[in-house]
């Protein structure tokens, strides 16, 4: 249990995942409240501090959670297709292969990896960029990131109006993925991506200098996110759901 908390699993996810992994073993049942109580009842020390830091919302004591998102001023991009023009299948998640994307900004907004999240499975791809977040670098990096994704799971990408996606038309030619743009200052229109970026901040706080983060560490965090049970997936992991779709599509 302690190892999973350190990996960023919530107490609720740990309890639900035990049911999936050990369906017949009643001794493996534990409530998320019991896990919270265990953590906060520990005596002061390195173990308690490490476990508290592993919780999605890190507090010394249990209290009501607050959420908030950073907003960035965005410029206009030529040739944009509005989110309103997306096929209906994107909205209801009935067909997999539709993605959301954005940059997650680092210290002084000078560095940022790209995050690409599949809407149905919540599978996440990190695209390491370092300080190269100009439009050409982003286009090349995103095209490369999608190379190993089966064609059937490359349908669309919904993005905000960041200038880094100003080469979206060439990206579509390179990748076969149509890009749609959310309305300005409307992060809820990419809610799956926004939620994922919130999870990413557990591993990379807002003052992170991504130019100092190795590609290996970026890949490690990608794997941690995709190996993390999600409530929205009935506590299956994005890896499990995505790989099942890949097996069905190939």
Q: What is the general shape?
A: globular
State Rg.
Answer: 19 Å
Derived from helix and strand composition plus strand pairing, the structural class reads alpha/beta
Largest sheet, in brief, is: 5 strands, mixed
How many DSSP helices?
10
Number of strands: 5
As a percent range, the share of strand residues is 5-15%
Poorly predicted parts? 56-74
Global mean pLDDT: 82
From the N-terminal CA to the C-terminal CA, the straight-line distance is 36 Å
Give helix % range. 25-40%
Order of strands, widest sheet: 3-2-1-4-5
Secondary-structure element series: HHHHHEEEHEHEHHH
Please provide a written account of the structure.
This protein has 250 residues and is an alpha/beta fold. The protein contains 10 helices and 5 strands; from the N terminus they run H-H-H-H-H-E-E-E-H-E-H-E-H-H-H. It has a 5-stranded mixed sheet, with helices on both faces. Strand 4, helix 7 and strand 5 form a beta-alpha-beta unit. About 8% of the residues have low confidence.
């Amino acid at each position: 249990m302690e190892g999973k908390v350190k990996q960023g699993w919530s107490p609720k996810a740990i309890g639900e995942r035990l049911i999936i992994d050990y369906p017949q073993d009643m001794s493996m049942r534990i409530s998320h409240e019991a896990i919270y109580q265990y953590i906060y009842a520990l005596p002061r020390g390195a173990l308690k501090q490490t476990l508290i830091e592993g919780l999605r919302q890190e507090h010394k004591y249990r209290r009501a959670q607050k959420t908030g998102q950073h907003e960035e001023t965005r410029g206009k991009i030529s040739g944009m297709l509005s989110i309103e023009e997306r096929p209906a299948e994107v909205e209801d998640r009935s067909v997999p292969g539709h993605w959301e994307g954005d940059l997650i900004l680092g210290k002084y907004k000078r560095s940022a990896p790209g995050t690409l999240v599949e809407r149905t499975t919540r599978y996440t791809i990190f695209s390491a960029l370092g300080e190269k977040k100009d439009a050409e670098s982003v286009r090349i990096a995103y095209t490369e990131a999608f190379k190993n994704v089966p064609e059937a799971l490359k349908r669309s990408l919904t993005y905000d109006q960041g200038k880094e996606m100003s080469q979206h038309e060439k990206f579509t030619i390179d990748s076969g993925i149509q890009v749609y743009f959310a309305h300005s200052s409307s992060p809820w229109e990419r809610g799956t991506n926004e939620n994922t970026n919130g999870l990413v901040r557990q591993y990379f706080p807002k003052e992170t200098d991504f130019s100092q983060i190795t590609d290996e560490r970026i890949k490690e965090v990608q794997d941690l996110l995709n190996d993390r049970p999600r409530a929205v997936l009935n506590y299956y992991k994005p890896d499990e759901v995505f790989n099942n779709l890949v097996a069905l599509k190939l």
